[in-house]
Amino acid sequence: MGLIVQKFGGTSVADIDKIKNVAKRVSKTYTQGNDVVVILSAMAGVTDGLIQMASQISERPVKREMDVLLATGEQTTAALLAMTLESMKYPAQSLLGFQAEVKTDCAFGNARILDIGAGRIKELIDKKKIVVIAGFQGCDADGNITTLGRGGSDTSAVAIAAALKADVCEIYTDVDGVYTTDPNICSKARKLSRVAYDEMLEMASLGAKVLQIRSVEFAKKYNVPVHVRSSFTEEEGTMVVNEDNDMERLMVSGITCSKNDARILVKGVPDQPGIAAKVLTPISDAGIVVDMIIQSSPKNGTNDIAFTVPRTEFKAAMEIEERVAKEIGAKCVQGDEGIAKISVVGVGMKSHAGVAATMFRTLAAENINIRMISTSEIHISCVIVEKYAELAVRSLHTAFGLDKI
Amino acid sequence: MGLIVQKFGGTSVADIDKIKNVAKRVSKTYTQGNDVVVILSAMAGVTDGLIQMASQISERPVKREMDVLLATGEQTTAALLAMTLESMKYPAQSLLGFQAEVKTDCAFGNARILDIGAGRIKELIDKKKIVVIAGFQGCDADGNITTLGRGGSDTSAVAIAAALKADVCEIYTDVDGVYTTDPNICSKARKLSRVAYDEMLEMASLGAKVLQIRSVEFAKKYNVPVHVRSSFTEEEGTMVVNEDNDMERLMVSGITCSKNDARILVKGVPDQPGIAAKVLTPISDAGIVVDMIIQSSPKNGTNDIAFTVPRTEFKAAMEIEERVAKEIGAKCVQGDEGIAKISVVGVGMKSHAGVAATMFRTLAAENINIRMISTSEIHISCVIVEKYAELAVRSLHTAFGLDKI
């Protein structure tokens, strides 16, 4: 018996029958004597439908109103689930973001949770109610509705679990756990029974779509055990927890693949101090996040600077760099949207040598050229031509001994 | 130049193109130098769709959650219109019920507005923003979302206009004003240029669907001039205002027809003091509103008691009366769903004799039997067999000189 936070994603609440299934699962946990707090996403497809509707009005709808619009999705599912539980004679009550006191900054569309005043939630728990909270939404200091960005319901769930000091935060989704890589790309992908917060962080930031990265940051910061599992089976999923000794036995825990980036190459940049800042500051000023950056060694007094940006921002970034190139007297700007970023991730890397070498050798054996490389303590990423992405993932999966037996 | 509240109904915001039209109209009023506050309904059909969804969960979904669900309809249109205005470069901001401080009691599904703390609205007006408010919704003292019942956006609009001391509250709808009767029934129906609050109140309560009755009560109480007009034309509609001398020239201003009632007749009730209370108290205890009540003169120590209830409550009311009849020793209970209530309304009745006589004579000339009669200072209603309803309306319309020339 304990306090359990359960989060259900969009595919788990896609229609009334699925919502009834969620109600069964929630009520089972409740009947076992647990306090239960449920966080919900919008029905699958609803958020996209709302975005599509707004796009008929404006290419760039004003963000404050976009959040008011999008928040209806989670409001709908929260009401429907509370209603379903009540119709099954379980005491339940929905709370919207502002009612659950999910306080955020005012970065509409991508707000950060600042604080959760868990008073009202606790009050309802004390009354033995199942509390059903609309995920993805909060409100700022002025009472405006905010949303937390794609996958934000994960963050809602973990943050609320942290605020309530819940025993576990269960993330129910349409996959049954965290895999060594995307099973759609590699049929030999294995489900991990445990994964460290840091590994999960890297995987999330490198393209694995299981959990929103901020939710993992929250989980790590407040030490919330997160259980990623399927809403369609009873099977155990993957526990995301603090690093432990067992985990280090494996060099690499997972392979990720992201096709969300584009590469921009500014050629013939004069080799002067501060020139990289001149190339990159206008990009960040435009609110575009740069991921990897490579500066070549100077040659004939000039450098090449290459960097990656989200593919959605590629056009905007190219326009900026073409202007910048003229101003600083660079030779030319080349862009490439057809890239993929393949990464190997594992806390085991800290104590195993040769991971990079194995990675480069494996890609070379498949005749795959590496265009950019970046590393951290627990990951190595390579940018390659997009069409080789799946081959690279499968080869690395085998090379690092991750294949299912 | 002044402060104008504009309310748009569901058909006026039924799709993105219609919302763009609303934005044009709103921005025109704003460009003329007025402060503008807009109140919106949900897109036509959306509320019914949500009700249908809830009905898949439960025949009687818990009301608190129903309100959370229904409130998404107006939230959506408010966000979309604010977004549209912003994309046209007009400063706009949406407010939900709780943000606009629409404070209600906690009668979920049919809440009454207790107070509107217009602070936030005024703040935005002072910043020259067009304020777009989600109608139909408010929140109770505990911060729960409430809704105001069918047509509640009218009430939102008038109550907000009253709180802001607006110069006029314009109700944009799919008809171009208040008619002497339903033009779908009587092709000779005329648009009224002015109608008194009291007449409008009677018409609304007697079946005219133009305005929610509570909105007229608010308008009368706070003396808010209401302008009912079409969102699809530029024509003037009908002003709902204080009674003036002009209005009294006409005996009758309108004919209404309601098919929303059913009649229950309890026959052979023992003629004892307090027996009517015994018959009717169980009905009101069940939350069913009784409209007309007729008690016959006693004959052989027994009475007949007839009354009408909303047709939606007919079955429940019949069950109650069959039980009551046994308890009090009444002879039998008869029910009839096939009735219509035809009413003539007019403040002119106060100073004109013979309205009732004209009404009865007109119906008699068409061989229409009157089953029940009720009257007030400014209306007379007759219950007749449903199939004669349209004929009765047309005959009375001619008899009272209301036909279009």
Number of helices of chain A: 11
CATH architecture of the domain at 3-174 in chain A: 3-Layer(aba) Sandwich
- Uncertain regions of chain A: pLDDT < 50 for 5+ in a row? none
Largest interface: A-B, 37 and 37 residues
Kindly report the oligomeric state of this protein: homodimer
Total beta strands of chain A: 20
The CATH topology of the domain at 3-174 in chain A is Carbamate kinase
Tell me the β content of chain A.
Answer: 25-35%
Strand order of the largest sheet of chain A: 3-6-2-1-9-11-12-10
**What gap, in angstroms, lies between the N and C termini of chain A?**
36 Å
Radius of gyration of chain A: 23 Å
Q: Give the biggest sheet of chain A.
A: 8 strands, mixed
CATH superfamily placement of the domain at 3-174 in chain A = Acetylglutamate kinase-like
Net shape of chain A: globular
Helix/sheet category of chain A? alpha/beta
* Mean pLDDT reading of chain A: 93
CATH class of the domain at 3-174 in chain A: Alpha Beta
Question: What's the helical proportion of residues of chain A?
Answer: 25-40%
Protein described:
Chains A, B: One of its GO terms (cellular component) is cytosol. Two copies of one chain form a homodimer. Chain A has 405 residues and is α/β, with parallel strands linked by helices. Chain A has helices at 16-31, 46-55, 63-87, 119-126, 152-164, 197-205, 213-222, 275-285, 314-328, 355-365, 389-399; strands spanning 3-8, 35-40, 92-95, 102-104, 113-116, 130-134, 137-139, 145-147, 168-173, 194-196, 226-230, 238-241, 254-258, 261-270, 293-295, 302-310, 332-336, 339-345, 372-376, 379-385. In chain A, the strands form five sheets. Chain A has an eight-stranded mixed sheet with strand order 3-6-2-1-9-11-12-10, with helices on both faces. The radius of gyration of chain A is 23 Å and the shape is globular. Chains A and B meet through helix 1, helix 2 and helix 3 of A and helix 1, helix 2 and helix 3 of B.
